[in-house]
Structure formats: structure tokens, C-alpha cells
Amino acid sequence: MNGDVYSFVTTCDVPHQVSVRIISLGGALERDTPAQCLAEPARTFRGINQRHSPLCVRCELYADNKPLSLPIHTKYSSSQGSSDTPCTAAWDEWLTLPCQVAELPLHTQLALTVLDVAGPSSEAPLGGTTLPLFTRCGALRRGRQRLRLWRGQQADACWPSSTPHVADEASELNRIEVLCERQQRGLLPTNDWLDTLLYRTVDQMYAAQLQDSDDLILTIEMPAWDSPVVFGEPEPKPVPRHPSTRPAPDAHVDRPWISPSLFTIHDPDAFSENLVEAKHRRLVRSQRLDALDRERKPTAAVRDELHAILLYPPTRVLTSAEMDLIWSFRFYLTRYSSALTKFVKSVVWSDVQEARQATDVLLPMWAEPQLADALELLGPTFQHLKVRAYAVKQLHRASDEQLQLYLLQLVQALKFDEEAFHAADEEQRAVYYSPFHEETPRLVDLLCARSGRHAALGTMFFWYVTVECADVRYGALFERVHEQLLSLLARENAPLLDMLERQRHFVDLLTSKAAELRTSRDTRPGKIDKVRTWLADRKTGLRSFPEPLSLPLDPDVSVVGVVAENSTVFKSNLFPLRIECRGESDAYTVIVKNGDDLRQDQLVLQLFALMDRLLRDENLDLKITPYHVLATSPLDGLVQYIPSMSVAAAVAEYGDLLSYMRCHYCDPESAATFHVQASVLDTFVRSCSGYCVITYLLGVGDRHLDNLLIAPDGHFFHVDFGYILGRDPKPFPPPVKVCKEMVDAMGGASSMYYMRFKKLCHTAFACLRKNANLILNLVALMVEADIPDIRAEPDKAVLKIQDKFMLTVSEERAVQQFEALLNETSYISTMFDRLHNMAQYFRQ
């Protein structure tokens, strides 16, 4: 190219919309003769027969015989002149088409039609023409263009077109206009006096051409770019390889037996929507079938199929056929509250009409759902704000005690509310801030309002939000929630706000002292002396409170001070404090931990309390001991102390658990209960069965004799939940923890008490299995919580618990399988218990 540099721009790099300037129309109009007007009186209204003809230009873009945009019209203009002289209609108007230059195909054509008024409400084409936007060389046209109109025809954008612009490229006028264009681009030298003469001559030649020809010429102008614009497409993005097609890291592809003709074919449409299924879905869910769907009733076979779908667990993904079936019978299913969540999952939310019918028509007429279903609607799966607002409306029916029972999960649901709000459009967001709602649809407003009226609920909500403020991802969200709660309490419940500030001061004092003692080099007796001296010091202000203080660990308990002489330090790696608080009636002992994340224990004990509530609702009291645990920060917390002894210590001191219970509650005359009071042995059997089932469902691991505790009154319970959801530091852990010491305390495997223990286990498992959806929904709301064993595999956390319920089989079959697990004897587990005892002995 002789060293020359040519600059150009590709169309894919032009972020501007297509525009064209409609300048004028030249040529003589053919008016109708008086005879034609008499024969057809409607011709009188045509614009060409008026003195001033109102004309407009319609502009469209086409490519491959398909329109690329909606038509755009110019304003109306009037022709000037008479029937025997050239007529000019001037617009001088820029039109911007709703299509970008970067989106233009190579075969794009500009279809221009001049329209004439044909009556009061009609129009007729005066003529049309079609101009390819790209030249034969692929360059985008620019500058002034003179186009021939084909009289009486609309622009034909087909390829080839019947209305081409047909410029006479061989004419002298066309040759001069090409040279003028090159001069305007700076490719030819300029001379002012000569250029003026040239342009005057060009206008005269154009007027003479119009005078001598019957053609109509439409003059337009395309944008003049600084550099030539050439058609170009962006480079395609690399197609991601499916994981199954990638070779393993240690795979050797140079095997001699592998044919070199074998290669991977990438199909970019492999994961795209099936167009046939999409069309089928639109036909099945057509809005024209609404009247039929309202009266549709299922047959017996379809009713059974619907019933089977409603029994699916919350984690089950519906197939497209199941979604279509539920949608077809949506009006019939409105009478069943249990069908609500399945219906919401069957809605195609990308379809605006379908989504509007679901939220505005069907949800208001649906049978009142249970709270378990409302909790599921607050999970991460449901993003539509109106659905979440509906779920919050259902929570208004819950009592303060019920909200407190689910509060840990509701606080986590605020994270999904925030994500759903940012993903929603403006119409959905308006629902969250509408002043016309009698009940607020925002979850955060509901929780703050109820917390301001109920002290216990407000206390727990305050501490849950305080801990979440330290979260890296959602900390800013919970800072706003924290400020909203405090401002509401300042307006409506100042005494509760003052109580929370006193609780914060009380907790800060205890946790800071626990951190100090944990890092000190003193011996345990020295640490005990230090903590007792510190608690007894009047400057600390803990020995006696000026007013009763509601404990953050258990808001229903008020204390008036601490008992320094009964407080101590545990023998543990973290040296937690045991602080005895003096209550208005009884003492309440609190364990203060520093350096330990208690949020996992807090979740497990909350689920224990929930399951105990569910069992009691079925008149089944299994003497569960859901002691209180509260995380006050990611590394601090409080634990309720229950007077008890580990099974390992009880066996070491008393020989067996029966001797331990007999020592505290002896009944010499009751040989049938092994000389233990009947109520104590009954409590032991019930609590053993309850904890066997609950720990099995939650997959609690690391069960050895040091974290199995027994109280003097026979209450048996578990502590230390560092491993859940099937995780265990030991290999081959038993699915159900029933140690030999427990069976011996019931009189052996053949005793009536052990048989009763197994029967209670079966009953408890069946009862909790009926409430599996509630438990699964609560765990699903915790997937974004900073819980170690959930964070390890958040997508499998709910599935692990679901597998324990055995929901794929009948209740009878599930109970049989659970009994088989209960009957298994793990000799390996017994061996590890012995090894653990030896390790503890040498550690001392």
C-alpha cells in the first residue's frame, strides 16, 4: 500500500443509533383530472389535488425480508408550485430509528415511502424507494443521497427489491456529485469562487433533470462520519467447555491407542431453552384458557397425581410437565393451603401476564397457608417481592412466642429480602413502600414492630442482629436494621432500650474478663481467685444491680446481681467462666465463653426446642432439655449451665448410670425400677429416646461419653455440637448414638424399659417426620448464615437432613428402616469411646 495508512471504523464499534435526514421531494405531481374526480368523488380529498398537498415520509429498516424496527414518520409538509412546474416538498428533518449501527446486518435496507392524504382518516402512498445502507464494498453510506420514487407504490424491502433507488451512476450529474462528496471529505482541494460556481451549476442541472423527467426524486442525507464505517461483527466469545468434556488433571492424552480423529465438539445450544417445550408451555398456559381453567376439575387419576406432587419435599425441583399440570388446575388448588408453595414454583415469573395473575388474582384467593409454608416463601428460591410480601402478611397471624421460636431464621431471611429487592423492577419495589397497605409487607418492619411490643422477642432480635453486623457481606444491611430497631424503641419503648443497653454493658464486662483470663499465664486456681475478686469488687458493679436485669440469654429471667464466691473457671482449653447470677427467686448460672463461635450450637439448640414443641403438640413429652445458648459476637457467647455430670464421669465415680440415679433418687422398695424412683427412670428413658431421634435427624457427630450428660433427676442430654450434618472426627460413626451405658441403665437390651425406649423412638421419629417440611424450611433459611458445617456445603445441608427423614418411602417403611439403624451395634464406636477415655485420662 506504499506505506499509506487507511483509517476506518467497524460498525460493531459505533454505539450510535441509525439516523437519516429527510430533506426534500422534487418532481412534478400528477394530479387527477376532473373526469376522474367526478367518477370517484373520494379522489377530491387526495392531497395532490389540493393547492398545498400535505405529505409525510415513513421510514423503516429491513434485513433479510424482516423489519428491524417500528416505522418512523416525519411531520407533514406542503408541496409548492403548480401542476406544470416542478414541485418541491421540504421537510429538512432528522429521524432517529430505534436501532443501533452496531446491530445492523450487512443486508440492511432503508425503506422510504412518501404518503399522501387520501381522506379524513386514510392515506395513500405517493411513491416508495429502497436504499441499501451498505455499499458493495461493505461501507456504510454517508452524505447526501438522491433516490428515485416509484409512483403509487410502497417501499418494497424484499431482496431483490421492486422499488430500488436506481441512481444513474453513468450520468454527468452523478459524476459531479461524487466529486463534490469527495471534496467535502477533504480528498480534493477547494477553491471558493470556483466551488460557488460549481454548486450553482449543479443545482441548475438538477432542476433541468427534474423538468425533463417525470420521476420524483427524494433527497436524503446520511450522517457524515469522520472516517469510513465498514461492516464488522464483534469477535465471538470463547465457548465454555462443559466440565464433563475437560480432561482430568492427570490424564494423558498421548496414548497410542487413542485415535487422533477423536475430538470434542462444543454445542453452544446444549444448555439453551428447548424452543419446542417453550412453545408448548406458552400454548398450555395461554391466557385465553383462563375461563376454562376456572371451571376445570381433575379426574381421579389426575387428582392422585396432584396429591403426589403436593407431598414432594421443599427441595424437590418440579419438572416442566408437573409445573404445567399445577398451572392448569391452579384455580382448583386454591382451596388447598398445602398447594401454595408448589403453585408458586410452577409460575414462570419471566412471563409478565402470568406473574401478574399469580400475584394479583390467585394469591389473594388462596386458602390461608400454614406458617411453615410462609417460611418457605421467605427462602432464597422465591425472589418476587409480591410473593415475599404475601408471606410476611401471613406472619402477622403468628403469636410473639411463635415468632421467637422462628426468629433466628427470620433474621437470616432479611438477607434474601435484600437480594430480592435489588433484583426486582420498579413496579415490584413500589409494593414495599406503598402507603396504602394496612399491614406492612416488609419483613424487617414486622420484626421491628413486634420487637418493640414484646420484651423477650425484642431482646433476642437485638442480639441476633448485633452478631450479624460483623458479617463481611451483609454487615451494612444489619447495621441499618440495628439503627431502625433502636430508633423505634427510642420512640415507643424507652424502658426496653435502656434494658438492652444495660445488657450490652453486662455482656461486655463478662466477655472482656473471659478474654483476659483465657490469655493469661496463671494457673486455674489463680484464674478462679482473680475472677472472684473481680466480681466481688464494688467498682465492677456486678455484685448488686440497682434494678433487676433481664438476662440476654433468657429474657424471661431477671437477676439482681452475681454471686462471686460460687463463680469459677472451667478446666478447658478456653477456660470459660461459670458465673452464678442471683435471681429474684432462684439462682441462674451462666457460662461465659470467649474465643468460641457459638452460632452453630445456638442453631442446634433452637432446633431442639422446636422439635420439643412439635412433640409436645402431639402429647409426647420426651423430657428434652433445650438449654439456652446465645452468641453475642462471632467469638463470644453465653450458655445456660445445667447441674449435671458427664456419662464418663458418672460411670467412673458410681460404676454405672443406675447407681448414679439410685444415689440421688433411691426407692428401696421398687425392685421393678432397679430401686430408682419410677419418675426418674421414666425421665431417663424418655430423654434418651428423644435425643436419639433428634441427634440422628440433625446428623450430630463427635458423640462420646464426655458430651453425653445426665442430671440427678434422670434428664439425659447432649452438649457440644461442633459437628453436625453427618460430620464426625472419627471414622465410621453410628447413625444413632445408643451407648452401652444407656442400655445397661434401662436394664439391658431385653428389658421392658429398653422396649419402651425403642417404641418412643419410633413414635418420635414418625411425629417429626410429619413436620419435615417445617424443619427443612428452617434449615434452608440458614444457608447464608456463617455456620461452619453449613458453610462447608451449603447446597447439601438441607438434603442431608431430608435424607434422614426418608421421605421417598411410606411412613411404615421409614419406621422400619429407622428401627434397623437403632438395632445396629457399632463395636468400632465403643472402641473409640474407650480410646477417648484413655486420652482424657492422660490429658489430666
Automatic annotation (TrEMBL):
One of its GO terms (biological process) is endocytosis. Residues 14-189 form the C2 PI3K-type domain. GO terms for cellular component: endosome; peroxisome; phagophore assembly site; phosphatidylinositol 3-kinase complex, class III, type I; phosphatidylinositol 3-kinase complex, class III, type II. Its EC number is 2.7.1.137. Residues 563-830 form the PI3K/PI4K catalytic domain. SUPFAM superfamilies: ARM repeat, C2 domain (Calcium/lipid-binding domain, CaLB), Protein kinase-like (PK-like). GO terms for molecular function: 1-phosphatidylinositol-3-kinase activity; ATP binding. InterPro entries: ARM-type_fold, C2_domain_sf, Kinase-like_dom_sf, PI3-kinase_type3/VPS34_cat, PI3/4_kinase, PI3/4_kinase_cat_dom, PI3/4_kinase_cat_sf, PI3/4_kinase_CS. The keyword Kinase applies. Residues 293-488 form the PIK helical domain. Keywords: ATP-binding, Kinase, Nucleotide-binding, Transferase. It catalyses: a 1,2-diacyl-sn-glycero-3-phospho-(1D-myo-inositol) + ATP = a 1,2-diacyl-sn-glycero-3-phospho-(1D-myo-inositol-3-phosphate) + ADP + H(+). This is Phosphatidylinositol 3-kinase VPS34. It comes from Malassezia nana. The gene is VPS34.
